[in-house]
Amino acid sequence: MSEITIRKAELKDLAAVRELQAAGELVFSYGPIDPEEITDEKSIAGVAESHGEIVGIIVGEKLAGPWSVAHYLVIRRDFRGGAVARELGQWFLGTSKAMGVQHVLAYADVGNPRLINLYKYFGFAAGGTYVELTKEI
Ligand SMILES: CC(C)(COP(=O)(O)OP(=O)(O)OC[C@H]1O[C@@H](n2cnc3c(N)ncnc32)[C@H](O)[C@@H]1OP(=O)(O)O)[C@@H](O)C(=O)NCCC(=O)NCCS
């Protein structure tokens, strides 16, 4: 696999980030991210780059207290199964910590074992502070 660079997302990445976000078969989405989700000082948005192409994204934000939340993590299909997801996750945790974050919140749907295993690799545990409640309507 080719060399990967992880860096903070910039405004010039918006189209590529939205493209990956749309290609991510996401169960939950707020729709295409706004430019502010990259530029805002509380935003935590990173990209994985390979030969000038964006091959992975992670987009989240710092909340008001010592919390951050990861909203979107998508790896381009041909880069899945490698180190990209772990590197982006590591970047998100490191950036969060540097912003004073002590707790990181992430959501994974039960039908996504890759995502759940990835979070477990980082030491995330299900449950704890919040109970998720959903209702069919
Ligand atoms: C979820 C996603 C980011 C994970 O990235 P990835 O490169 O595919 O992840 P990996 O291949 O490193 O797999 C992560 C873990 O799941 C395991 N895994 C891989 N395929 C699996 C499968 N079919 N079933 C169970 N576990 C699996 C891996 O072994 C790894 O666990 P490990 O750390 O114990 O080895 C990526 O698949 C993706 O972009 N999916 C579409 C978008 C998405 O669902 N995003 C999440 C919601 S925002």
Give a quick rundown of the structure:
The protein has helices at residues 14-22, 36-39, 84-98, 113-121; strands at residues 5-8, 43-50, 53-62, 67-75, 103-106.
**Total strand count, please?**
5
CATH homologous superfamily descriptor: Gcn5-related N-acetyltransferase (GNAT)
Could you give the order of strands across the largest sheet?
1-2-3-4-5
Radius of gyration: 15 Å
List low-confidence stretches. Answer: none
Small molecules in complex:
coenzyme A
Number of domains: 1
The N- and C-terminal alpha carbons lie at a distance of: 45 Å
What order do the helices and strands follow? EHHEEEHEH
Work out the helicity level.
25-40%
**CATH secondary-structure class:** Alpha Beta
Please state the second-level CATH architecture: 3-Layer(aba) Sandwich
Beta-strand content: 25-35%
CATH topology: Aminopeptidase
Please state the overall shape, judged from the principal axes of the Cα atoms: globular
Average predicted local confidence, pLDDT: 94
Structural class: alpha+beta
Largest sheet entry: 5 strands, mixed
- Number of helical segments? 4
What does this structure look like?
The protein is of the alpha+beta class and 137 residues long. It has one domain (5-121): Aminopeptidase (3-Layer(aba) Sandwich), CATH 3.40.630.30. The chain is built from four helices and five strands. The protein has helices spanning 14-22, 36-39, 84-98, 113-121, and strands at 5-8, 43-50, 53-62, 67-75, 103-106. The chain has a five-stranded mixed beta sheet, with helices on both faces. Coenzyme A (COA) is lined by residues 24-26, 72-75, 80-81, 84-85, 112-115, 117-118, 121. Coenzyme A is lined by residues 24-26, 72-75, 80-81, 84-85, 112-115, 117-118, 121.
